[in-house]
Structure formats: structure tokens, C-alpha cells
From TrEMBL:
It is found in: Cell membrane. Gene3D superfamilies: 3.40.50.2300, GPCR, family 3, nine cysteines domain. GO terms for cellular component: plasma membrane. Keywords: Cell membrane, Disulfide bond, G-protein coupled receptor, Glycoprotein, Membrane, Receptor, Signal, Transducer, Transmembrane, Transmembrane helix. Homodimer; disulfide-linked. Pfam families: 7tm_3, ANF_receptor, NCD3G. PROSITE patterns: G_PROTEIN_RECEP_F3_4. This is G-protein coupled receptor family C group 6 member A. Residues 543-797 form the G-protein coupled receptors family 3 profile domain. GO terms for molecular function: G protein-coupled receptor activity.
Length: 829
């Protein structure tokens, strides 16, 4: 068998963290010692017991006997020292509760009797403020259930009760136990440590066993809750009444044997654990046993014959330290000085017949025999007890802390210094309770303990023994294999199967209860979510670079045209183009080229809207101006005076152009308000495509269809006027510009229904560029060519000559047609 224990450590004030220990000298099921320290100036009270545990057929427990001896040694050391209570002698009376609550309560009433009353009589009072009982403070008992019982009585008197091993959480309730203190941690901290150990060791399937006493029931309940919160499955948890253990134990051991769980937590007192493990030894049940602090290092358990056959035992124990000088004290006990110590007499009798070279054999022998059947005494030096404390048991050290804490409380209460104590000796127990039970780790009592010592009080911070951790890594306790990342449990029960995550879901931890989807911008890849690449019409795209080159070139050309027209502003070509209106058209073209920039890059809601608004308004304004130019030319060369007069009345460019633009703006406002363009995220399995959703397709077609409709009207007027003089071919250029625009947008509308993704933005950007370049190339560049390279044609005389020639030719053709209509040619045979 391999046994390990884990040590909890924390430096805290003794008045807040104090412990009881429930073990008694005599022990079979549960046995406790009730230590009592009474304050008297000179008198040393005798060692007595009103009820012998041998009468109840209890066995002698060497561990608890060491606690008795530790108390006696500590009191003697304090009395021999002048540093804590100079001039004061502590007396003591030690009673054995025999692990029986009734016996313990009988001892309590004896201890609470009046200090001057004969025959240990206690008084019933409504107010115990001035009541001075037989003792001033109590150390013990050890077991939690007995501490709870006697603590309810002690709290009436505010009797300081310092336990050295009671860890039940209920004792932390100051409303119920205001005078209870302890030098060990609450079992709640032990439960946290147990749970953390199971989590670190990946023990996901356990059994929990306890007895029916308060300590076990509270511990089992708390451990079940803590384990479930840590996702540890409990095959079963069971508490067995001590009175029924003989009848119920066979069935329990059979359930343990058949359980797939490999770790058994035994949260019980040492006597119960001994009976349980003995049955496990007899039935050859092999598991990993996790021990609570009440039996983890008890020699009562560790010396069981064949204990190594039931598997591995790991346990939790209190901080263990050696009391300086105590081992030598035990090694040199003078038997004559202990003639009135009944427990020492009983130990001497048992030790006389239990003499072996093995510690475990001596312990087994002592716990199995009766002292009343032995007549001789053990008189030699007792190296066995010294070896036993060096092997490790926490009781002597915890008792030492409890006694020393009371001494320091009395030191503060009585106002002691290094020479004397000046306080009144007429104090009551509640006055002692008011003082903090504390002392510091750097106190050196060289004459008291022949050395220095440090005190480590248990709380929650704990460290796991590296050796135990390394050893326990080979221990497994699970009825199911551990699910890998990418898998999940088939159910939430203790036993489950591992199934792959459904398509589109992942798990990235072991033993995942469920799989989960990735974020919207991620895609699953085995056990991780990978950020999806974001695809859009990027600036680095080759086609985007191509568009930007021509877009910038168009902006430069527009600027150059504006400069040329400004230089030749007074020439006939500029006047024929509409003078000031030319700059309006050039500004609109500039905005059209700029709108192309918003088709490239990652889309946003504002970019999606701006690009449609800017191009639609600017090009509508541009075509409206060209429409007015073509209409003006059409009216100027209308030879019917009546028709010309009517058309001149209609020709109002500074009214018609704003009306055309206002109608386009109205359409855009309705579009943007009701269902305008927004960013659209199109997600595939491993990619995200960002593009602009145009919102209402009806509004989209209506917006650009309206611009196309104006250009169609402009094209019609220009086409009718295309036969003007050669040097005055304004209408011909407008015709070609509008023809390019119409063809480009008809192709775009045909492609719009079939395009998708980032290419839709690219196609519309190209269409906008083609429309803008159509106006620049076919409308403006020929004029620039005349102004720069054919200046002879850019004169008033040249324009007048060609207009006159065109007019003369038109008149002749008109008269010829009229003559042919009036005089038709004769029919010839």
C-alpha cells in the first residue's frame, strides 16, 4: 500500500481558526478525548475519569494517547517557563468521552460545576455572566459530531472551546457556536482541495461513502455538490448508520466492487473507515481510496494487516510538525511520576505484552488487547512512542497549539509581562473568550521548548505533494474514454460515448458536453475556428488598378479641357458649346469620375450610398445640359418660323435642367429612405464576400433608367440635327456621346441580373467610366482639337460661311422638291 497526504497551510490568527479533534484514547468505533485546562494558582488537579471506556468495550488508541501526553507535556513546559504566565501554575483534568455523545455530555456538566461546589455540582441559572465554573477553558473534543453536541452547552456559558481536529463546517457558525475555536481548517476547505485534486488528476467518476454522524453527512453532502459543480460524475454516494454497519456493509462492498468508478472517497471517522477497509481486505476489493483528514494518517488504519492489497490510499491531513522536546519527553517517561494517570497505567500494561520490532505490530497488538487482563507493567525506556511521532501524526502538534493558545489568551487577560501577572484571578470564561487566541510565528521560547518553532494554521491555500501527484498520474477513474477536441459527449450521464461534432460545429476542449458554431466571420477547421478571409473589390485587384488608372486619367483630361476652354473662352467653338454651360458639364464629369473611386475598397453603408447618389445626380445634370444644347441647335436650324417660335418659347435651360435634376433627387431620396443601398455580407463555407446590396431593385433601375431616358431624348434631338454644317457638327458629337452611354448601360442592365459578388461593383464602375469617357472623347476632344490644331476653323467668318452654304443648299433642295410635286414629269411611251 502507498499512502500520501496533502498538507493545507495558512498563517491565520488562532482566535478565528481553531480546531477540535474527536479521537479518544479508547477507540473502537469513534472515540474522543475531552481535554480540560483549569486555571489554579498552585494546585495541580489529579487525572481522573468518571466513566471507564473499557466498560463500554472500547480499545486503546495510541494516537489519542499521544495527544494526552502532548497536553501534559505542554502544560508542564508552560508551568516551568516564566515567559508566558510567570507566577501562575496551570492545572488540568483529562476526561475520556469514549467517542460517545452521552458520555461527553456527562463530562461537560462535571466541568461546568461551580469551582467551590462539593461533588461537582452545576447550577441552573438564567444569567451565567458571573458564573465561575470548575474550569476556565476546554481543549477538545476531537470528533466533530461530539464537538457540536458539547458546543451547544458550552455556548450558554461562553466557555472557550478549542478543538484540535473537529473540521465540520457547522462549527464555523458563530451564531450557534460563539465560543468555539479550532486550530485546523473547516472541512469546506478540505472538500475544495479534494475536488481540485480530482479535477487535476482527471478523476471523473467516483464513489462517496460515509457514516451517519454529523461530520460524515455534512461532508458527503458538500462533496457531492462540489464534485457535481466540477463536472465529476458520482456513481453513487451512501452513508451507513453505524448501528447497521454489520448488516449493510457486505452489500456496500459488493456495489463498490461492481462499480466502474475506480476512486472511492471515504468521508468518515477512523473507526468506521477501519471496519470498511477491513471488509474490503477480506473481500479482495481493489480501488483507489481517498481519505478524509480523520483517518488519512491514523495508525489505527495504516497498520491493518494486508492493507496494501486493497489498492492505493491517498489522503488529506492537517499540517504536521514536531513539538520540540516532546520526543525526548516520551522517551524518558518516569513511571513512578504517573501513578495516578489511569491512561498511562493502561498503556504500560498493554505495552508490556506488546513488544515487537515493528511499529505496526505494536499498534495492532495494543488496539486488540485489554489492559485489565495484564498484571505486569512496561518499565523500560519507551522508544516506540518516539518512533511513532517521528513517523507522523498531527494530533500532538495540534494539541500543543490548542494548549499554547489558551496560555497566551490568559497571558493577555491577566496583563502578564516577563516577571509577573497583575490581573485579577476572579474572572469568568466569557472574559477569556474576548481575547484573541493568537501568537506569532517568530516567538522563540528557548527555555520552554528548547528551540524555536513556527505555527502554520490551515485555511484554504494548499499545496499538493509532488510525489503524490507524480504517483497518482497513473490512476484513472472514468467509465468513458476522454473525448478529444473535435468530439463531444453523447449524453450528460457519467458513462457516455464520444461522437464527432456535427458539420459546421467544433469543440476545442477535452470532454466537451456539446459542440458550438464559429462566429459569423469564422469557419470551422477541425478543432479551431479560423478567421474567414474577407473578399471585396480590393485596391490591389488588377482590374481595380486598371480602372483607377483610367479614372485618374479622366480626371486629368477634364482638368486639361477646362484649361483649354478657359483660354479659348471667346472663340466660336466655346460659344457654340454653350459657353458657361461647358463648365457645368465638365464639373459633372469630374464628379462622375470621382464616384468611381467609391466602387473600390471594402464597402460600407455610406460608400454604397454615395457612389450611387454622386454618379446619378452628376450624370443627370451632364446629360440635361447636353440635351439643352442639342435642343438649341435643333431650334436654331428650324426653317419653319411658326415651329421655331413655339420651340423657342419651350427652350428654358435654366428651368428645365433644375427640373430634371430635382426629379432625379426625388427618386434618390425615396430610394435611400425606404430601402437604400447597404453593405451585404455573403458568407460561403470558407470565405466572406463584402459587397453593396442595392436595396430596392425597382428604385435602382428607376434611378439609372431615368438618366438613360434623358440621354435617349438627347440622342433623338442630336440625331435629327446631325446634318448641320461640317464645321458646326455639335449635334453629331452629342449623338455619338449619347450612343456610347446608351449602349454601355444597356449592356450593364443585361449583365446586372447575372453578375454577383465583387464583380458587380467592378462592372458598374466600368460602365460609369465608359459613359464619362464617351462625353469626354466624342463631345469635348474634337472641340479641343479644333481650338489647338485647326485654329483657322475656329473663326466667326468660317462659321458664318458654312452656315450660309448649308442654308442655301437647304433652300434649293426645298424648292426643287416643291417643283417636282407641282409639275410631275410626263409619261412617255
Amino acid at each position: 500500500m502507498k499512502t500520501f497526504w496533502f498538507v493545507l497551510q495558512c498563517n491565520v490568527c488562532l482566535c478565528h481558526i481553531v480546531l477540535w479533534h474527536g479521537g479518544g484514547i479508547h477507540q473502537l468505533a469513534f472515540s474522543i478525548m475531552l481535554f480540560v485546562i483549569s486555571f489554579k494558582k498552585i494546585l495541580n488537579f489529579p487525572f481522573t475519569s468518571c466513566l471507564l471506556c473499557t466498560f463500554l468495550n472500547f480499545r486503546f488508541d495510541v494516537d489519542k494517547f499521544l495527544g494526552v501526553m502532548s497536553m501534559i507535556y505542554t502544560i508542564q513546559a508552560i508551568n516551568n517557563s516564566t515567559e508566558i504566565l510567570p507566577g501562575i501554575i496551570l492545572g488540568y483534568e483529562i476526561l475520556d468521552t469514549c467517542s460517545d455523545i452521552t458520555t461527553a455530555l456527562a463530562d461537560v456538566f462535571q466541568l461546568l460545576s461551580l469551582s467551590k461546589a462539593p461533588d461537582h455540582q452545576a447550577e441552573f441559572l438564567c444569567d451565567y455572566t458571573t458564573y465561575r465554573p470548575f474550569v476556565s477553558a476546554v481543549v477538545g473534543p476531537g470528533y466533530s459530531d461530539i464537538s457540536v453536541a458539547v458546543g451547544r452547552v458550552f455556548q450558554l456559558f461562553m466557555m472557550p472551546q478549542i478543538s484540535y481536529s473537529s473540521s465540520s463546517t457547522i462549527l464555523s457558525d458563530k451564531a450557534q457556536f460563539p465560543s468555539f475555536l479550532r486550530t485546523v481548517p473547516s472541512e469546506a476547505d478540505q472538500i475544495k482541495a479534494m475536488t481540485l485534486l480530482m479535477v487535476q488528476m482527471n478523476w471523473r467518476h467516483i464513489l462517496i461513502i460515509g457514516s451517519d454522524d454529523d461530520y460524515s453527512q455534512q461532508g458527503v453532502t458538500a462533496l457531492v455538490t462540489s464534485a457535481q459543480q466540477a463536472n465529476i460524475c458520482i456513481d453513487f454516494s451512501q452513508t451507513i448508520p453505524t448501528s447497521e454497519i454489520t448488516n449493510l456493509l457486505p452489500g456496500l462492498i459488493q456495489k463498490v466492487r461492481e462499480s466502474p468508478a475506480n476512486v472511492v472517497v471515504v468521508f468518515a471517522e477512523a473507526t468506521f473507515a477501519k471496519v470498511l477497509l477491513q471488509r474490503a481486505i477480506n473481500d479482495s476489493v481493489k480501488k483507489t481510496w481517498l481519505a478524509s483528514d480523520t483517518w488519512s494518517v491514523s495508525s489505527f488504519i495504516t497498520t491493518l494487516p494486508n492493507i496494501d492489497t486493497i489498492g492505493n490510499i491517498l489522503g488529506f491531513s492537517f499540517k504536521m510538525d514536531q513539538v520540540n522536546g516532546f520526543a525526548d519527553f516520551l522517551d524518558n517517561l518516569p513511571s513512578s511520576q504517573w501513578s495516578r494517570n489511569q491512561f498511562y497505567e493502561e498503556y504500560q500494561s498493554l505495552r508490556a505484552v506488546c513488544n515487537s520490532s515493528s511499529i505496526s505490530e505494536i499498534i495492532n497488538c495494543i488496539s486488540s488487547k485489554k489492559a485489565d487482563s495484564v498484571t505486569r507493567k512496561f518499565l523500560g525506556p519507551d522508544g516506540f512512542l518516539k518512533e511513532l511521532i517521528e513517523a507522523g501524526t498531527p494530533i500532538p502538534f495540534n494539541v500543543f497549539l490548542s494548549v499554547l493558545s489558551v496560555a497566551h489568551a490568559l497571558h493577555d487577560l491577566l496583563g502578564c509581562d516577563s516577571t509577573s501577572c497583575n490581573g485579577s484571578l476572579e474572572f469568568t470564561p466569557w472574559m477569556v473568550s474576548l481575547f484573541s487566541f493568537h501568537f506569532h510565528a517568530d516567538i522563540h521560547l528557548s527555555r520552554l521548548m528548547r528551540g524555536s518553532y513556527s505555527l502554520y494554521f490551515i485555511f484554504y491555500n494548499f499545496s499538493l505533494c509532488n510525489k503524490a501527484l507524480l504517483f497518482s498520474q497513473n490512476i484513472s477513474s472514468s467509465c468513458s474514454s476522454q473525448c478529444k477536441p473535435g468530439e463531444m459527449k453523447s449524453s450528460n450521464s457519467c458513462c457516455y460515448m464520444c461522437v464527432p461534432c456535427p458539420e459546421g460545429l467544433i469543440s476545442n476542449i477535452t470532454d466537451a458536453a456539446s459542440c458550438f458554431p464559429c462566429q459569423q466571420d469564422e469557419y470551422p477547421n477541425n478543432t479551431v475556428c479560423i478567421k474567414m478571409p474577407q473578399t471585396y473589390f480590393n485596391w490591389t485587384d488588377n482590374f481595380a488598378i486598371f480602372l483607377m488608372i483610367f479614372d485618374i486619367l479622366g480626371i486629368i483630361i477634364v482638368g486639361a479641357i477646362a484649361m483649354i476652354f478657359t483660354i479659348h473662352y471667346t472663340t466660336p467653338v466655346v460659344k457654340a458649346a454653350g459657353s458657361f454651360m461647358v463648365y457645368v458639364i465638365l464639373t459633372c464629369l469630374l464628379l462622375s469620375f470621382i464616384s468611381v473611386i467609391f466602387f473600390i475598397g471594402k464597402p460600407t453603408d455610406i460608400k454604397c450610398k454615395i457612389r450611387q447618389i454622386m454618379f446619378a445626380i452628376s450624370f443627370t445634370c451632364c446629360i440635361s445640359c447636353m440635351l439643352m444644347n442639342s435642343f438649341r441647335i435643333f431650334v436654331a436650324f428650324m426653317f419653319d418660323p411658326l415651329q421655331q417660335h413655339i420651340l423657342k418659347i419651350v427652350y428654358k435651360p435654366f428651368m428645365i435642367i433644375p427640373v430634371f435634376i430635382l426629379l432625379e433627387v426625388l427618386i434618390l431620396v425615396l430610394w435611400m429612405t425606404l430601402n437604400g443601398p447597404t453593405t451585404y455580407l455573403q458568407t460561403s463555407e470558407d470565405n466572406q464576400v463584402y459587397r453593396c446590396s442595392e436595396g430596392s431593385l425597382v428604385a435602382y433601375y428607376f434611378t439609372h433608367g431615368y438618366t438613360t431616358f434623358i440621354s435617349l431624348i438627347c440622342f433623338t434631338f442630336a440625331f435629327v440635327s446631325r446634318k448641320l454644317p461640317h464645321n458646326y457638327n455639335e449635334a453629331k458629337f452629342i449623338t455619338f456621346a449619347m450612343l456610347v452611354h446608351l449602349i454601355a448601360w444597356m449592356i450593364f442592365f443585361a449583365e446586372f441580373s447575372y453578375s454577383f459578388g465583387i464583380y458587380l461593383s467592378a462592372i458598374q464602375a466600368l460602365t460609369c467610366l465608359i459613359s464619362s469617357y464617351g462625353v469626354v472623347i466624342w463631345y469635348f476632344l474634337p472641340k479641343c482639337y479644333i481650338m489647338l490644331f485647326r485654329k483657322e476653323k475656329n473663326t466667326r467668318e468660317n462659321f458664318s460661311l458654312h452656315v450660309y452654304s448649308y442654308s442655301q443648299k437647304t433652300v434649293n433642295e426645298t424648292f426643287q422638291k416643291a417643283h417636282e410635286t407641282t409639275n410631275p414629269p410626263e409619261n412617255r411611251v
